[in-house]
Amino acid sequence: ADGKWVSIGSIEPQFYAILLEKAGMSDPQFQKQNDKSAWPEMKEKTAAIFKSKTRDEWCEIMEGTDICFAPVLSMAEAPEYKHNKDRETFVTVEGVVQPAPAPRFSKTPGAIQSRPPKIGEHTEEVLKD
Questions:
Q1: How far apart are CA 100 and CA 11, in angstroms?
Q2: Tens digit of pLDDT per residue, the chain (129 long)?
Q3: From CA 22, how far away is CA 75, in angstroms rounded?
Q4: At what angle do helices 55-62 and 13-23 cross, to 10 degrees?
Q5: Which residues contact 28 (CB under 8 A, 6 or more apart)?
Q6: Contact yes or no for 6/70 (Cβ under 8 A)
Q7: C-alpha neighbours within 13 Å on the C-beta side of residue 100
């Protein structure tokens, strides 16, 4: 409805069942989860269902469940997303917001060594190789 996206990974039966319930996917076709011959039609029906609501409406429906879902966020949105804030997934170095080092280890924490390069900053060096 708004041109934004969500990702869905409800493969295991218990998660898929919650997806069907929360998304209102009552068509019997959706019970054929593992029938590959049914996938093309299910894909079309699923797309139509997900286009019927905005990304934020789907977030309201699915967050806090075991659906295996996440909103697809822009780089402007990602640092402000509650999940990412709670986990300190992004850091600001010299005024540039960027992903924090990952994975995180308790005995050898990662660190950003310097600011990210500016666009084109190393172009000539790279092209010499």
A1: 29
A2: 899 999 999 999 999 999 999 999 999 999 999 999 999 999 999 999 999 999 999 999 999 999 999 999 999 999 999 999 999 999 998 888 999 998 988 898 888 888 888 899 999 999 997
A3: 28
A4: 120
A5: none
A6: yes
A7: 15
Q: β-strands 69-71, 96-99: how paired?
A: unpaired
Question: To the nearest 10°, the Cα dihedral for 37, 41, 44, 45?
Answer: -120
Q: How many CB atoms lie within 10 A of CB 62?
A: 21
pTM (predicted TM-score): 0.76
What is the Cβ-side half-sphere exposure of residue 42, based on CA atoms within 13 angstroms?
16
Give CA–CA dist 105/86, Å, rounded: 17
Q: Determine the Cα–Cα distance for residues 89 and 78; give it in Å rounded to an integer.
A: 9
Distance between CA 37 and CA 30 in Å, rounded?
A: 12
